[in-house]
Amino acid sequence: MADTNSIGMSEPLTDLEPRAGLVKLVRWESGLVIVLIACIICGALTFKYFFTPQTIFFSGLDIGEIAMMALPMTFIIITGEIDLSVASMLGLSASTLGYLFLHGWNIWPAMIVCLIVGALAGAFNGMLVTRFGLPSIAVTIGTLSLYRGIASIILGTNTAVGFPLSTLKLSLPIGKSEIAYDFAIFIVMSIAFGVVLHLTSFGRSLYAIGLQKETAYFSGIQVNRIKFRLYVLSGVVCAFAGILYTYQEASANNSTGVGLELNVVAIALLGGVSIFGGRGTIIGVVLAACIMAVLTTWLTDIDVSGEVQSIIVGGLLLLSVLVPNAKDGFGRIRAVLRRRSAVSP
Fold this sequence. Notes:
The structure is a single chain. The chain is globular. By secondary structure, it is mainly alpha-helical. The model is unreliable at about 1-20 (pLDDT under 50). It has helices at about 20-45, 55-80, 85-100, 105-130, 135-155, 165-170, 180-200, 200-210, 215-220, 225-250, 260-270, 280-300, 305-345; strands at about 160, 250. The protein has a single domain, classed as ABC transporter involved in vitamin B12 uptake, BtuC (Orthogonal Bundle), CATH 1.10.3470.
């Protein structure tokens, strides 16, 4: 039997995403714009230094790596899968970089090794999901603990510090602007991911897989190969995010990035990506990342504790799942009532 992952697709599959779904996404993104504006207004009214250059800089700095990891996560969720090991792969990359640096490696070869480690971690996830047919949520919950454990073995209780000054500039604004390096990198990556998702046959194949995997397979799409590549891509991006995270913190330890997977998933789902697959846009994810950045900065400025912030993020995650499904349910009910009224005498 042929593999299910060919990038090419027949013409009917280019229209697998219904127009109604596109309308819903446009409405969702419009709502995100309103929420973003509301968060900015609330921040400005409750904290007088909210619009200072420092606040703008730290907003981008805090969300950059999380938002980067949300981009491949978006691709994976659109295909109907998920990757909950993203923060552990970030931590594994950071621990690997710290270990190599402590043992005298030049920083550039060490970075290449970290990216390879990330690719291998993603490939392991992809192999278990595509070759062995295991559910992605179970696989990545397992590798979440596995990769974090490996990170602890690699670096132990040590903390790597003393990275070259040339790398520490990543914790500073770009030039005379107040834009953080990692947020600028996220925007550039978003453009690239957006082009791939919305303007190529590969992107259309992701929607096709998420909407109807069997139909996509019989239309010539290599489903398993595409999913495998997405997990590898996720591993590489997470490793890159781990490198940036390490340089910005000027240190690495085995707990780097603990708990960030919740924020990554929250950004993707808040951006309008359907947890059931087949729907989502990069624009929505970018807006969701901006909302998370502004919201986190605002809550921190008004001295809301980290525990309460986690509760708020969890609430947003639930709303991102419940609201679209509630709207779909009401839409189906209205459709049934209209049909009944149409046939009634």
